[in-house]
Specification:
Blueprint: E1 2-9, E2 12-14, E3 17-20, E4 25-32, E5 38-41, H1 43-47, E6 49-51, E7 63-66, E8 71-78, E9 82-87, E10 97-102
Parallel strand pairs: 1-4, 3-10
Antiparallel strand pairs: 1-2, 4-8, 5-7, 6-8, 9-10
Length: 103
């Protein structure tokens, strides 16, 4: 299983460009190092992957919400190639955006 860590802070994702390969199982580890709540919002991406335990997502299955200091993990297999928008739904106005690519 491949592992990718994304750190959220005010107001950015690090890294802000994620590349995944189709058919590979990933463990996406999210950490909020900021003082504010941040979201990993990627509704089209979440629709295009097979998620092991979807309970980490919000009820709409559009984002993962992290409180300050919180960490969460998502295990998934990318099924569909494409480019997907990543943003923090509360802070995209401040440039907290990114890109997800599935090859």
């Amino acid at each position: 299983m491949a592992s990718v860590t994304v750190v959220e802070s005010e107001y950015r994702f690090s890294p802000d460009r994620l590349v995944f390969a189709r058919g590979v199982t990933y463990r996406l580890h999210l950490e909020n190092h900021g003082k504010e709540t941040h979201e990993f919002t990627a509704p089209e991406f979440f629709k295009a992957v097979e998620i092991d335990a979807p309970g980490v997502l919000n009820a709409d299955r559009t984002e993962i919400v992290l409180q300050p200091g919180e960490t969460k993990e998502l295990r998934f297999v990318a099924k569909q190639a494409g480019h997907y928008q990543l943003r923090c739904s509360d802070h995209d106005w401040a440039g907290m955006t990114g890109q997800i690519i599935v090859k």
